[in-house]
Batch of 4 targets.
Target 1
Amino acid sequence: MPTTETFYEVMRRQGITRRSFLKFCSLTTAALGLSPAAAAQVVEAMQTKPRIPVLWLHGLECTCCSESFIRSAHPLVKDVVLSMISLDYDDTIMAASGHQAEAIIHEIREKYRGNYILAVEGNPPLNQDGMSCIIGGRPFLEQLKEAAADCKAVIAWGSCASWGCVQAAHPNPTHAVPIHQVIHDKPIIKVPGCPPIAEVMTAVITYLLTFERIPELDRQGRPKMFYGQRIHDKCYRRPHFDAGQFVERWDDEGARRGYCLYKMGCKGPTTYNACSTVRWNNGVSFPIQSGHGCIGCSEDGFWDKGSFYDHVTDTRVFGIEANADRVGLVAAGTVGAAVAAHATVSAYKRISKPATFGDSEPGESKQQTGDRS
Amino acid sequence: MNTALPTVKRTAVYVYEAPLRAWHWTNALSLTVLAVTGYLIGSPLPTLSGEASDHYLMGYIRFAHFAAAYIFAVGFLFRLYWAMVGNRWSRQLFALPFWRRRFWSELWHEVRWYAFLEQEPRKYIGHNPLAHLFMVVIITVGGIVMMFTGFALYSEQSGLGSWQDRWFGWVIPFVGQSQDVRMWHHWGMWIITIFVMLHVYTAIREDILSRQSLISTMISGWRMFKDDRP
């Protein structure tokens, strides 16, 4: 196992030309939102720093994160980053298997104690002693905790590792939990999305490997450079939202004209991700551009937040699902009717029994006691 | 003078000082604007035809919402200040004497009055206990919840690092996620709307049936009592 090779050396060994290497560096710099001058820093770091090993673990997941990752827009990105990672451990794509594969984790832990990156795709189930996800004959939770014990930092790939995603959706029979609930002593970088955007994934990992520090994170541990704004903030259909032009029904005139999908339940206004800027599949498109609203896949618990096609979603309280507008209108109507009934009874009572206000003293005296005590 | 007509003795207390009355009516206006525009943000008006650049309807609706929200928030801060410098009744909005047995017995009496089980209501210079409870829960607690969730949602557009984000951004992960904050903010609108319906009805009803003035008090500041009995 190479220990002192630099990234550049690894890339050259993989048959990547220097020209392509420089392209990769400048592309990554741009994706990270750094200044053009920083490209030289990336090149310098890649050429001089020893490669940091990455362990890529898979828990309960659908592997959509890996599928997304290997489809990075720039063909080089996946070649470069993937070749750097697959050298270590990624049970989906590595050549080794069985005891040989598991031995790699052990070896990395010994050799690079406190100096390797742990990337986690998926999450651990806690119920039934973790038996719902067995890796190498043991519950995934054990492998995860062992690998995390000696790592430098953890990357939580996708919504599974970051929030829980579909396996943690109600009623969550396996009690799947996001990894920050089982790893408490390491910095965790959340890269949510189902899956996350390929360029976001490669950029985050390149940032970590190149600068050997964690990118700036928001309150919930997501890199600010990609999760600092909502889909809505950078959506190309935003002018139609501001103008008040919406798709009212699927395939109506508004849909053909590309109006805002807000009324169709688009979650762009509540979803933090880079889809509307980076887009998908080599920057070809993203859901809203294809005429369907955002489903908010990078948000916490998006499976349990009601319909993908409602803007005012259902509220799950005490097991009862209700929509604020429906309940609100019914409640307002009921209260209105009750008020009318109450007023009628009040009026009837007053008419039937004349009020006996006043204590029969003539005249009107005004007692002014505007005290400010 | 026609002595055959029944005469009514009235006493009066200056309860609501001018700044407090101004706050009340400003609040009434801003809450109305907030509820209407808030509903329209959740369920926008039918689509407008023509170029997007011809219209700015959602923009104007949202502007009205945010402007009214700032007026409500500044008004709330002012009201807090006035509770400190104003008269004793100005403090009722922020202090509920729930530890007093008498408060609950009077509240129960008021409930019975509304249920037509009492022949006569009691007299109060400030709020009656039932009204007092509703004011504190809906306007103070409810108002604070709406301001916190509202500014948290506002911080989503003002961006990371803005003062709204630094002060209120934590509300979003605290509640869950952005969609949850929207949902609870929306529920708050309905709760306040229903409160306003009840408030207006009871104010009119009590103005007629109770032994003290209600509506004119919030205009002139004077609480007029219709009799001298305790």
Note: Residues 358-373 of chain A have pLDDT under 50 and may be disordered.
Target 2
Amino acid sequence: MGVIRVKAMGKVKLSITLKNRLADLDKIKTAVLKLSGAIDCTRRKLKEIDLILEELFANVVHHGFKDNREHDIDISLSCDDGILEIRMEDDGEPFDITASPAPDTRCALDKRGIGGLGIHFVKHFIDDCKYYRKKNKNIIVLKKNMAEKTHKKNDSK
Amino acid sequence: MEIIQENVNGVEIFSVKGSLDSNTSLEFESRIYSTLENGQKRLVLNLENLEYISSAGIRVMLKTTKDLKRMDGNIILCSLQDYVKEVFDIAGFDGYLSIEKNLDEALQKI
């Protein structure tokens, strides 16, 4: 399901194609495990990557498609010089992640919904975010610096 | 994910191990709600061995907190790992939920 290529020292590319069903989440978990074997990063960073990919994928599965048909969701991960690039393509309803409003995390409990929380997590854990709509496809390109900055104490977690 | 469930002096303790993601959270929700249906209204979630949580797991905890508040019950979380605690903080959940350092303190305050 996944293709992994180690192009040169420090350069890694991994591509997976998922269907729009939550059961395919396991393929993301497997891909992150493969990534962990190919690049030098902490378990903490891997959890963040896991979270970013799960939230992007779950969001498109839950909200991306109005029909009941099967759709492909393509995810590629490439790491070069300590920068991880995550690219996701789907042919779902237009969704501009960069325009998605942040949830109100300080309102009263009774009024607090869960909408937008997953995308809020994605934005928190990435360093750059771009969105394109091309040929009826959503294309999201995210960049994450893999160098450890403020979480050194969590390396073992 | 594994859930070990025990009742100590009328408090239902859920010890959750592994990952609460978009798939496993469904079973977690079902376990919690069958407990609530049995009339149990005081819950402690021991998250000492919870390695990973996504918005799906957070959603279950938010829903449970709201429902227990309506039922005049209570829920306390304890022993969060650093990653899980940060995800709660980013979600803004630190203001809604009672979080204690360890199980003993959670059982004292529930």
Note: Chain B has a mean pLDDT of 94.
Target 3
Amino acid sequence: MRLEVDITSKEYRNAAGERHAVISGLKFTLGTGEVGVLVGPSGCGKSTMLRIFAGLDHDYQGHVSRPPGVRIGMVFQEPRLLPWRSVEQNVRLVAPLVDEARLSALFAILELGEHRNHFPGELSLGLARRVALARAFAIEPDFLILDEPLASLDQALAARLREQIAMLVDSRSVMTLLVSHDIDDAVRLGDRVFLLSPRPTHIVAELPIPTPRGARSEAGIAAIKADIAQRMTATALESANVTMARISPREARED
Amino acid sequence: MPRLLSFAVFVATWWIASLLIGDAKLPPPPIVLAATVTEAKSGALFFNLGATLARVALAFVLAMSLGSAIGYLMGRVRLADRICDPWLILLLNLPALVVIVLAYIWAGLTEAAAIAAIAVNKLPTAVVTLREGARALDASLDDMATVFAIPRWRAFRHVVLPQLAPYIAAAARSGLSLVWKIVLVAELLGRPNGVGFEIGVAFQLFDIPLLLAYSLSFAAVVLVIETLLVQPFEVRLSRWRPRAA
């Protein structure tokens, strides 16, 4: 199984009818067992990309080829659970064939066992995020899409959840695409990190991380993080300069 | 208990009013009760209530199912909304009497004409409410259902329908009260039985106890249906919501 992405451009039309370029060049492939991480500044259109990869948005130039009949598991930025169904019903709705043993194991890994019969309205955001993860894994996806699954969680919880994601990803062969603005997540979870520019977005650099997830030393992680941070600062500066040069005096005043 | 108290206040007010106005225009509760018992003993009361209830049930189910389907379609599909909207406005503002009279003229004084006329009166309010509901559907949940490839019917049943439930409940509630009102007019004008017909007879004979006997029995039936069917249904639908709302 292989995901091939070649998006040449994606425009977005706002309410006033003006066109804005969101993506200006995105080309990569992702194979089974690989975790690709898209890292970029906020507002660079990461969620737009994921919508295209998931097949929710067809209005773009270029092509994305997903393997036919691929099972997609997606964790949206906000949990998107059905408030009128219990935790277990939410998971079973997308995965009607999941057997009890697998479901229990999944709930155990994500520490959701005692919340099975709760409604999403009764859960904290952290718990709701874990239910969204459980839902995405319950269908045994071939292609896993994670949109900032760890954003706005406290450090300790984010770290635990990250380990759980790593464990679930390694437990089966799946192509995974993760979007994050957190370099730490990217380096600890990814096999390949794609650095994105601000809008209109393109891939600035692709960094493979050959060391397996479990075997990465803190020093190694720190080194890669420093490298990425430096590259991102450089990109941000460069794009800021370009933007400055592009803005006409009138527009600058309006800002 | 507060309900019982409010009922007692109602009976007391009625009794006092009848003493002030006089038996001829407003008979006191015992006389009306006696008339009710007489009608009940002869079986006429239950026969007529039953006939009216059957018409209400048929017209209500017809209007709700058709109205919900049309409203959902209009809320989801822009073209359907544009095509149907003028008709909807026409139907919304067409007086009930016009619909009933025309139905009897075109289809004869038949049961089908009566039920269709009642349903047509209720239909547009169901359409309007359900259209609002369909417009308010959460697109992000639709996306979720699409990504996870939930089959259409399952998605409708578990993702869409619960979002429409409050709108369906509102349409049912307002629709039921509308049907209760219109069914009597339809019976008065063109049916040989039912509460509306009996009230018409009582009016012509100036039999006020009989008139009140039927009106109040009918009101009692409406109250019982509201308390035992409609309200528990609404509670069940909203049980996932946090209590304080």
Note: Residues 136 and 165 of chain B are 12 Å apart (CA to CA).
Target 4
Amino acid sequence: MSTRTEIKHPAPQQVDRVVVRFAGDSGDGMQVTGNQFTNTAAFAGNDVSTFPDFPAEIRAPAGSLPGVSGFQLNFASHDIHTPGDSPDVLVAMNPAALQVNLKDLPLNGLLIVNEDNFGEKNLTMAGYQTNPLEDGSLDGYRTIKVPLTTLTRRALESVDMPRKQVDRCKNFFALGIMYYLYNRPTAPTESFLKRYFAKRPELVEANLLALRGGIAYCEAARIFQTTYEVAKAEFPPGRYRNINGNSALALGLVAASQQASTGILMASYPITPASDVLHALSRHKRFGVMTFQAEDEISAICAAIGGAYAGKLGITATSGPGMALKSEALGLAVAVELPLVVIDVQRGGPSTGLPTKTEQADLFQALWGRNSEAPIPIIAAATPGDCFWTAIEAVRLAIKYMTPVILLSDGYVANGAEPWLIPSVEDLPRIDVKYRTDPENFHPYERDTDTLARPWAIPGTPGLEHRIGGLEKQNVTGHVNYDGENHEMMVRLRDQRVRNIENDIADAEVNGPDRGKALIVAWGSTYGPIQSALQTLRADGVEVSHVHLRHLNPMPKNLGDILQRFEQIIVPELNLGQLTTLLRARYLVDAKVLSKVQGMPFKASEIVDAVRQLGSQS
Amino acid sequence: MTISSNAPLTKKDFSSDQDIRWCPGCGDYSILSAVQNVLPTLDIPKEKYVFVSGIGCSSRFPYYMNTYGFHTIHGRAPAFATGIKLANPDLSVWVITGDGDALSIGGNHLIHMLRRNVDLNVLLFNNRIYGLTKGQYSPTSEFGKRTKSSPYGSVDHPFNPLSVALGADATFVARTVDIYPAHLKETIARAAAHRGSSFVEIYQNCNIFNDGAFSSMTEKTIRNDQQIELVHGEPMIFGKERDQGLLFRDEGLEVARIGENGVTEADLLVHDEARARPSRAFQLSRMEQPEFPVPIGVFRAVHRPTFDSEMQAQMDHTLDAEGPGKLHELLNEGDVWEV
């Protein structure tokens, strides 16, 4: 008896990184739980990286395999770049979640299951003939069976709430268990609940009771022999917040429009996984951001072009199928030379494909998905936080060069989160906007000698009345013109105007030796897994360098030189080799693709293996 | 170049220096002329006009106007115009479109613009044929029409543009005819004065591919018997002798002769364009030859807040209530920690 307090809190064991995966029904609140754990870990000073993985169906039948929703997060006391290849801990709220996720849990991994949900019906729905909690099939794992539903009901006995609502709190009970296991503070979640349910105090109380119930249960029942602690990671000094890619995009767009003083007209049509950009921007009216939910994807881009014509920063955000619908209007934006930012948050395709899963296969569509010669600058975001800076760069190029710009993101960066060093407003680039006002010698297609950009002459300006449109125009005057030689000149001018951007962007930087045996070239969201792979490879003494491209059209001027300095080039991409093909075509180098098209990001180990194989071939 | 002067604008101020490339004899000329005549009367500075069009013969219109103009892509003019009006509600934005542009490829944008009641003026040139692609049947071509793409006769049931507009809850719906310059100008002026989406169907003769499409109602000798001009507050009377009118009976509208079966002028319907419900306007839009004369004029003119003003009001209200946004605060929103 007297020893009870002594063993109540065993000294936590220090670990440097942990990967946790929460999995349950899509109605079980796994995304909220995962996000709460993430915010708390980030707030406690860990580096974090997350991977929400949810079904396209809003609520597939409860307990079914297609209805399983997961959230994986990696938190560490050092710099990390991915949500982790496989979880150390799996929290499975029902048999279906176990069935779908167990294959990823390494042997001897920690498995926490809600045993209340392992009744016959749920077992059958998940395809189990016998109960895995009883048939010995989980012997290889450290399995902890928790009657989560029963315990949650008990913890909430004092609350006068319908049973159904009580049961909904069990994710916070599970979160409490995880907080206990990793010695996390509850304060960030408490303040979240108070904010989130500001108008429903009974829900604040219920969820807090569940959260504390989870912690108290661990203390009382001593289900864990040890608890763990992950120390703070070292970050460059500054102020941080946790951010996902779509939120960062929205912030970047607002920041850029403030720097340019244009205001925003954002017109979009709901589409997964891009809708959150529209949601986020619709909150920012007091920054001069107007959002218009259009009747379809075509209307959305057309309205955004209309907004740009009238002097606003025109923005539309979509995913692959929406990009396809916007193609004709994008061609018009090229022809009328107006500033426009088109965001493509890529997902698995073709057609409707895998709406909630990630892919990087719209690069060719962005480059060439229009009739005739219709060049458009393309840039891609590498990480959730990088979305902020990529958005600002997209706006800068669009305005300076009077051109549509395509910004490629994808489901992985869009929904993944990481700590983000908040920039100070003074450090943001200025974006100069010069609307033409002087009618003296005004010609709508007279070009700036450096950029080849035409003037931005907006309706309402006296003396600048002019007509633009999709028909070919005479250079300078902008009058309709079908002359063949003029057309060729215009085709070349539009092309040159985009090429000129290469003089206005940073050189590609080589991470690692600037010449040697192996170079990884990549773009977009593969950045994280590649960084992790580089850490592993270098720790093993493998020499490999990496170039990550933000600008895909045009590419940095020095890229060709860099490519020539390496014996082997490998390009990991979530498609069948789109960047690889470009590199081979443009630079005549023997670049090899490392492809993956499973709707999932690369595991670092997949890149490590590929680079090692490269070495063994040479 | 002088930017502006206080001298009143004239028709000439609205004519661009571009050669007009419509076929000689095309009905589009008179519509262009009517618009150029009406604009100087509207007390709007020239730089505030924007003409937006899609694709088709009618959509070349902006090139001939010395205003801001945007010749966009097929069917999408309402979407561009919506963006322009949202970005700058101070502009007077006009959509120039045709039956193929507005009702076929662009049908979706048209109905959504109308239901939102964006403050735009839409002039739909209806010639019941595809002209620029040289003579295929359009969504307003009559059933059975023989064209290049329907040598055995079209089996497409046609749209009635006004019924479509009324079905989409348009707040201003009118019809006029290219060869009636006075009525055309009057209707365009009414459309311009209306706050909200003004939808004007203009019967327009294509003398190359569909000549005489409307002659069964516009021929001088039969005109008075084959059409009825709707005038707000006036009884619905037509006929050379002004001896016929419209009644409402069991099944709907009927034509009656004054003096027959005890019908007097007092029995006739009086046109009320401001009726809140669109059903009477809809019935009028369904009137077709030979049973009925073809109505022209303003079918419906009601008031409903416009989309652009509601959007702007929400922006203004938020700004008033919460103050201008501060970027520093936005970037530092939520759980922030210091390292």
Note: The longest strand of chain B covers residues 294-301.
